[in-house]
Amino acid sequence: MKLDRLLSIVILLLNRRIVQAKELADRFEVSVRTIYRDIEAINQSGIPIVTFQGTNGGIGLADGYKLDRNVLTNDELASIVTALRSISTTYDQHHNHLLMEKITSIVTPDSAEAFHKKTNQILIDYSPWDKRGPLEQKQAVLKDAIDQSILVQFRYSNAEGELSQRTVEPHTLIWKGKHWYLQAYCHERKQFRIFKLLRIKNLTTLKQTFGRRALPAKDERVGEVWYDTGGHIEVTLRFYPQAMHLAEEWFDIEELQPLESGGCVVVTFFPENEWLYGFLLSFGPAAEVLHPPYLREILENRAAQIVQVYRKDKT
């Protein structure tokens, strides 16, 4: 990720007088042009970086510049390491491990034991239980395209299963709600869109580059992207006694209204779309939709279709 790379470059320059741009590009597996953009960003942040000409030239910090070790406390450094370890569980980025080692090296020996304890108090593991081969490949392709500002093209299947060809300017990889998404400017829709990586097919990079656009204010954070795909309806769900663990897994305990006969009722709002039908059917006989009536009919019809699929071999 770019922040990791910027911090790593600064730390390298603190430890070495001059580093060549090509060496940095090879180390971080990006283009030389990307390295020079990184250097410009570091300069703009207030850390003076200069270029030295000649045979032994390269990139270095301005003479006399020192980064105060106390600019970050041990607690703040521990928070950075904890975040990097968590990111590494789902985003395969070996530079994270290099950066964690460098941050750890900044900690004084007398604080090392306490620092190690702090960095091992929390680990947020985003990775799924199964292997992620194809998904990891998409991440790698999109990360390189974002770094180098290269257009990508793919076929996209939306929530209704409709396929469309897209050419986009990739801006940001986003992890939200157990899934990876791409935030990109879509040439076909002429606006920024969010694409679920699992629905991206035939991903390829193009030779054409693009200038990074300012993200619309409403897209600066992902928000409830999946939640905006349809009109909202109020749904009343009944969970039977043997399925209370499912209710507690998906809903806050404050939302559960216990029933005298056992189980509970949940009243909540959902977008009405294909995701909702699949989500409710995933509970099987453990839960029942009480309201609205028409949603019960939709689920009944879909359940009947499922039964028909499994019965057709018996007729």
Provide an overview of this structure.
The protein has 315 residues and is an alpha+beta fold. It folds into 4 domains: 2-67, Arc Repressor Mutant, subunit A (Orthogonal Bundle); 70-119; 133-226, SH3 type barrels, CATH 2.30.30; 232-313, no CATH class. It has 10 helices and 11 strands. It has helices spanning 2-15, 21-28, 32-44, 74-88, 94-106, 112-119, 133-148, 244-250, 274-281, 293-311; strands at 49-52, 58-61, 150-157, 163-176, 179-186, 191-196, 200-209, 232-239, 257-258, 264-271, 287-291. Strands 6-5-4-3-7 form a 5-stranded antiparallel β-sheet. Strand 3 and strand 4 form a beta hairpin. Helix 4 crosses helix 6 (112-119). The longest helix has 19 residues, at 293-311. 15% of the residues are buried. Mean pLDDT is 80; it is low at 223-229.
